[in-house]
């Protein structure tokens, strides 16, 4: 369900507070967005601490990621707009940063997918109804070239409308949903699962 800018700003600020409380928004890391009823995108500005967001830290961009206000959007805005253009059901996108995501993706430098299997919490992902399944999440190498990275995302996700998230190696993860609540649950649940995977590594249980 698309929403107004004022409502989107409120939800983005609330999401920032939540992710910051969970330790998933260190310093000024991360970026969040929502699709608006106008077809525009509400987006966090560059350089704002996501746990201290105010309405002035949320701006509008068009469907191609171009700013519609005299503010600077996140450098990774194009990754958000690519997801919205590919998947009409997506209305919120969250980008978190965590130690488990950074460590795991660096630990497996050649893996193109991170596979999660057998966890009860997998049921937090849309369409997953049992722990007895496996979810393969794409992992992309980090890049400062958002045009190249967004093209890679498009190529891998083109036929994977049910994919709930992707990871960027040594960087962070992107999760999304039909609502901000759903996107938040995907990110929070996935970050817990990544923590479980990291703890397994510490115990010497490498399942790859």
Question: Could you provide a short overview of the structure?
Answer:
With 208 residues, the chain is of the alpha+beta class.
Structural features, described:
Strand 1 and strand 2 form a beta hairpin. The chain has one domain: 3-Layer(aba) Sandwich (L-fuculose-1-phosphate Aldolase). With 208 residues, it is an alpha+beta fold.
Brief descriptors of the model:
5 helices, about 210 residues, eight-stranded mixed sheet, globular, alpha+beta, L-fuculose-1-phosphate Aldolase
- Give the overall form: globular
Which range does the strand content fall in?
A: 15-25%
Instruction: Compute the CA-based radius of gyration.
Output: 16 Å
Note poorly predicted spans.
none
Distance between the termini: 38 Å
Q: Oligomer, anyone? A: single chain
């Amino acid at each position: 369900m698309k929403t107004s800018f004022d409502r989107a700003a409120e939800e983005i600020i609330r999401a920032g507070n939540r992710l910051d409380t969970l330790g998933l928004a260190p310093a000024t890391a991360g970026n969040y967005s929502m699709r608006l009823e106008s077809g525009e995108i509400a987006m966090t500005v560059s350089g704002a601490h996501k746990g201290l967001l105010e309405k002035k830290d949320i701006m509008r961009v068009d469907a191609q990621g171009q700013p519609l206000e005299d503010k600077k959007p996140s450098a990774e805005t194009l990754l958000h707009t690519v997801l919205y253009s590919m998947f009409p059901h997506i209305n919120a996108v969250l980008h978190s940063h965590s130690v488990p995501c950074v460590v795991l993706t660096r630990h497996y430098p050649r893996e193109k997918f991170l596979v999660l299997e057998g966890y009860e919490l997998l049921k937090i992902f849309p369409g997953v109804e049992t722990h007895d399944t496996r979810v393969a999440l794409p992992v992309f190498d980090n890049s400062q070239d958002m045009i190249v990275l967004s093209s890679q995302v498009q190529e891998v996700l083109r036929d994977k409308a049910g994919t709930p998230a992707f990871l960027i190696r040594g960087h962070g993860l992107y999760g999304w949903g039909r609502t901000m609540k759903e996107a938040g649950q995907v990110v929070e649940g996935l970050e817990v699962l990544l923590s479980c995977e990291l703890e397994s590594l510490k115990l010497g249980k490498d399942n790859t």
